[in-house]
Amino acid sequence: MTSKNRKPYGRFFYNITYCIQRSSQAETIARLQEKLELSREKCKKYKGIKEQLQKASMSLSQRVKSDSISLSCQTVHDLQSQLGKAIAERDAANERTLAADERTAVVIARAEATTPLNAAEFLASPSPETPQPPIRSIEPYSTGLKFVIPKTARDICVSDGWCSYSKHETIWPDSVTTHCLVFAPMHWYNGKGNDGKGAWEKTISHQEQKLRPGQKRDLFYLEGRSWYYYGTFECVGVTAMSSDQAQNLRPDLMEYVEKRTVLFPDLVPPFITKMVHSMYAEGVLKVECFGMRCVGFNHELDQALRSFSGPKAGLTVISVPKEGCTKKGHHPKRIHDGDGTARPHKKQKK
To answer: Where in this protein does the record put region Disordered (predicted)?
Structure first.
């Protein structure tokens, strides 16, 4: 084929190629237009959904706002009610605190104005007139080395609480239970003190209970293995005395005081126990003496004790005196030998 005959074929192929390209472009444009229409439809659909969501959101916001306002009003009302109750409780607590402060101030003032107790004169003083029943008519309310006191009885003790003693730490005048002397060591050696190494400490049994002149306690007394309620007693004075002075009041008293001066004796070296006697004899250690006088008789408490019989739910178990407790908070007490037959323990005559 000559070159002259090639041109028509070239033009032919060119035209075909051009048509194919135009056809391809048309198809592409058609597909794009189709996609564009679909996109527009989706856009319209999404726009409608968005409008619906906006309306729903606005409606929900209005409902939440309305509910919140209602809830806020109720909450404010509740808070105002709670605030009113809290203010009333605070005012009542303030009144009780002021009353307690006044009583404490009176007690402290009386304590500061009180001269040191003369133990011998106090013990020999005439018995005050009290509503306390005759000693022989007082019956025990509990027997055994632990005194079980019902909660109803504990709650009606006088405001300063109660105290419990045994014959080993008290001296009573002959034939009466209207007043007595209570003895305790002023310091003791604690075998568990100083992280178990042992240490001398100031006795906490009375100081912690804040037994001071002017304070009144309902007094429970252990004689043998029986507990008695003797009435409401007031601390009229306190003094520190030597072992000789204590022995002049009762010769066997120091044996008990010295025993109480060593806590946890199984943990204490024997030389410490032996040294205690010498420290009392030389005046290094002192004995603390409290004067207690009967000033009343809690008949409501007595009636509650009389109606009590045997262990029940809601009781307080008080151990036999270990450290000479005076209560508002209870402290365990040493178990004594219940070998006494007469009560109470009187001052021995020379």
So the answer is: 323-350
Using CA atoms, how far apart are residues 277 and 300, in angstroms rounded to an integer? 45
Q: Rounded to an integer, what distance in angstroms lies between the CA atom of residue 345 and that of residue 348?
A: 9
* DSSP H helical ranges for 205-335: 243-249, 253-260, 270-281, 299-306
One domain, residues 188 and 318:
yes
Residues 81 and 154 in one domain: no
Domain that holds residue 133: 116-327
Amino acid at 201: E
In a domain, 195, yes or no: yes
Do 99 and 247 share a structural domain?
no
Residue 235 lies in a domain: yes
In this structure, what DSSP letter does residue 295 have? E
Per-residue pLDDT of the chain (350 residues; tens, 9 = 90+): 444 444 555 565 556 566 666 666 666 777 777 777 777 777 777 777 777 777 777 777 676 666 555 556 667 777 777 877 878 888 888 777 777 766 666 655 555 545 688 999 999 998 878 778 887 788 888 777 676 677 778 889 998 888 889 889 999 998 788 999 999 999 999 999 888 889 999 886 544 456 788 899 999 999 888 889 999 999 999 999 999 999 999 999 999 999 999 999 999 988 988 899 999 999 999 999 999 999 999 989 988 887 875 444 344 555 444 444 444 444 433 333 333 334 555 555 55
136 and 96 share one domain = no
**CA atoms of 192 and 265, how far apart (whole Å):** 10
DSSP SS3 for 176: coil
For 294, the token pair is 């009967």
Q: Name every residue whose Cβ is closer than 8 Å to that of residue 73 and which is 6 or more positions away in sequence.
A: none
Helix (H/G/I), strand (E/B), else coil: 303: helix
Cis peptide leading into 270, omega within 30 of 0? Answer: no
Query: Considering the domain boundaries, does residue 193 fall inside one?
Result: yes
- Helical ranges in 114-215 per DSSP H: 119-124, 151-154, 193-196
Number of domains in the chain: 2
